[in-house]
Write a structure and sequence with these properties.
Order of helices and strands: EEEHEEE
Number of strands: 6
Strand content: over 45%
Radius of gyration: 17 Å
Oligomer: single chain
Mean pLDDT: 77
Number of domains: 1
């Protein structure tokens, strides 16, 4: 039987805990599943929260029966650097997207 991994979803300060988990054979399979889940989560946030989204952080926090295994993070930043003519409203000038996976140290 393969180890069971739990993929908790962090959306800014909110945490949705995975109660069921999924059995995966390798750490590479865990990383792929975390990355795919994070992409789906980010895609949903962009479409549903885009108008109010100036800085948003999301993560998939993966754990097993012994604790934390890895964290895949996504940060979306919208930087307003110039104003449009007539009205002083700002326009989006750049978007920074970062996806990373970090392995915590096991003690």
């Amino acid at each position: 039987m393969d180890p069971r991994y739990y993929f908790d979803l962090r959306d800014n300060d909110e945490l949705a805990v995975d109660e069921e988990g999924v059995e995966l054979a390798t750490l590479q399979a865990v990383q792929i599943e975390a990355a795919r889940s994070l992409v789906d989560m980010a895609r949903h946030a962009i479409w549903t929260k885009a108008e109010s989204l100036l800085r948003h952080r999301m993560a998939i926090e993966v754990r097993d029966e012994n604790g934390a295994v890895l964290q895949a993070k996504f940060t979306f930043e919208l930087e307003r650097t110039s104003s449009s003519a007539g009205g002083g409203a700002t326009i989006p000038a750049s978007t920074v997207v970062a996806i990373s996976a970090q392995l915590p140290r096991r003690v």
